[in-house]
Amino acid sequence: METTENKTGFAYWKKIVILLCAGWMAIWIYRSALSPIYPQISSSLKGGASDTALGLISSFYFTGYVAMQIPAGLLVDRIGKKKVLIPGFILFGIAAFIISQATTIGVIYAASLLAGVGCGSFYGSAYSLTSEYIPQAKRSFSTAIVNSGSAVGSGLGLILSSFLVAQRGLPWQTMMYITVALVIIMLIAFQTIIKESKSDEVVKTAVKEEVKVEAPKEKASMKTLFQPKMLFAYILYFATCYAYYMTVTWLPSFLGTERGFEGAAIGFSAALVSFASIPGALAFSRLADKFMDHKVRFIVILQFSAAIMLLLTVQATNSTFLLIALIMYGFLGKLAVEPIIISWLGDNAPKVGIGTTLGVFNFFGMMSSIIAPALTGQISDVTGSKVMGFYISVGLLVIGTTLFMLANMKKKAA
């Protein structure tokens, strides 16, 4: 017997895809909104703030975000996705409001840490939902749509922040008020759409014709979490995120100080990485869904190709060649390959412990968001150039991808 959702052609898993895409948009609008308006934030604080002090705002956020990954994954498996996701977003909204009222940099640091903890609840909850409810044949493509919310949100945050505050002269707190409004909208949507706990059986009945949910036979344990293929997947993701966060953090400075880009050209060129990733993610995830037995092959080819493009970006001798390489890195890089990796993880992780596995997975990946910017900055201070930082990223991509490939070749041979 068909459900109402099936009759209308808008199944529960499709609502989940749209909802989670919107969730990433809200998070990334906040993440990207502050850096363009650092001067306005500094001038509003008592005594002002140095560039180093302003840069620590992002560090505090990512510290909270990373610290929350494994606890959030454990909580998702223990009490449910909805019970982790909603309190996390409430904390996120409170933190954004506190930042809007802050008059000292210390308060902004504390609130940024809280915002990171709140947003840290999203990853495990979101991809547990995609692994559970999205049909396997559509999982990579659907995950790519979910992930595209981060690229769209990043672009919107930069544009809105620059236009409303830097150009129109509105108070910088406006971006935090927008964030709070988005969080409230998302909380209502989470509460209305996500069905879990006692209503889980209703949801599974509604999608039973599309998703065959089998009784789980394996739980997450240290042995399953850190078996070779999973461990090398974590290393692969760390390398992927390292290259991405090093690039998005230092690319504008690299283009301006070492490649002669000026003014708006710097921001536009840096934004190419995010926007080029959207068609790449949709195209490659569609192919990965069509050829489901070849996900590892897709991951390996994309990762090696991204490493080559990042290398060419650094070695480019003219701006046109550099921009082409940069666009191709975005097209082939993190946001393009991530949906396929997550889909592979959903196929290989224990079904009961998927939240824990995702938490460990993202913990390894997001550790790079703390290490890569700081290490590259230190390299730049010592050598006077950020080129070595790019070379390290390329090396990590090659090593991580090789280990992942060998682990899966061994499994196939067995």
Automatic annotation (TrEMBL):
Subcellular location, in the record's words? Cell membrane
Q: Which GO terms describe its molecular function?
A: transmembrane transporter activity
Which terms are listed as keywords in the entry?
Answer: Membrane, Transmembrane, Transmembrane helix, Transport
What membrane topology does this protein have?
Answer: Multi-pass membrane protein
Which InterPro entries does the record associate with it? Answer: MFS (IPR011701), MFS_dom (IPR020846), MFS_Na/Anion_cotransporter (IPR050382), MFS_trans_sf (IPR036259), Sugar_transporter_CS (IPR005829)
Which Pfam families does the entry link to? MFS_1
- Provide the Major facilitator superfamily (MFS) profile domain boundaries: 16-412
Query: What is the predominant subcellular site recorded for this chain?
Result: membrane
Q: Cellular component GO terms, alphabetically?
A: plasma membrane
Carries keyword Transport? yes
Transmembrane domains' residue ranges: 12-33, 53-72, 84-102, 108-129, 141-163, 175-194, 231-251, 263-284, 296-315, 321-345, 352-375, 387-407
Q: What is this protein called?
A: MFS transporter
Q: Native species of this protein? A: Enterococcus alcedinis
